[in-house]
Amino acid sequence: MKTNFILSFFLIFSCSSVKQEAEVHYEVTEQPQQYIKEIAHTAYILDKANFLRFSFSEIDSITGEWFKYLTYFSQKNNLSEQIISKTDLSDGFYGDTLLFYKNNISDKQVIIWKQEGEYWSYLNIFLFYQGNIALIGDLSIGLDCKNCDSFNFPQSGIDVLETDEFLKIRFKEQAVYRGSISQGNPYNSVNVKTDKLTLFYEETRSYISY
């Protein structure tokens, strides 16, 4: 019986070790903008044939709407401009940034468009791989902080990693989860405190665990 116990412990330990070895952490990368002659614009380079840039609409004099677009260019569609996300600047966003994470083994990239509202961060999360880009999830999140002037979530609290089964975007700080449109929860309809919020993505579906 003692031998069986030792064998079982060894198997559990071995499986755990294999799982850890299969976990790949994405590295944070800096993506400077460069002028791309083929599209006649300054853009972020995903690879030599795929680019991202921001563009703007004019302010609508009647509604006050003023859209900021995230647009994608790829040789697969002859470098024509494809809008993959947008935000209405008249809603009060005061800042935004693109965050880039790369798996140096597979060359997969995760791009997060992080928009800052008065209190909360709104994130659109994309996966770029082999010349294709797709929105894989979105969410609103803020720091769980009583005395903060701003609750916007820091990049240092975001970790991107991949296992054999899932791509995971993990939010490691004490936070308040405020909703996800892709999960059927409109922004600010949820108010859950958590320190283990994770967005899981598998093939064509995603879900949020907290």
Q: Considering DSSP H and I runs of 4 or more, what fraction of the residues is helical?
A: under 10%
Largest sheet: 7 strands, antiparallel
| Total number of helices | 1
Tell me the number of structural domains.
1
Task: Write up this protein.
With 210 residues, this protein is mainly β. It has one domain. The protein contains one helix and 17 strands. The strands form three sheets. Strands 2-8-9-10-11-14-15 form a seven-stranded antiparallel sheet, with no helix packed on it. Strands 1-12-13-16-17 form a five-stranded antiparallel sheet, with no helix packed on it. A hairpin with a 4-residue loop joins strand 3 and strand 4. The two termini are 39 Å apart.
Q: Care to give the gist of this entry?
A:
The protein is 10% helix and 50% strand.
List its salient traits.
seven-stranded antiparallel β-sheet, single chain, 210 residues, mainly beta, five-stranded antiparallel β-sheet, 1 helix
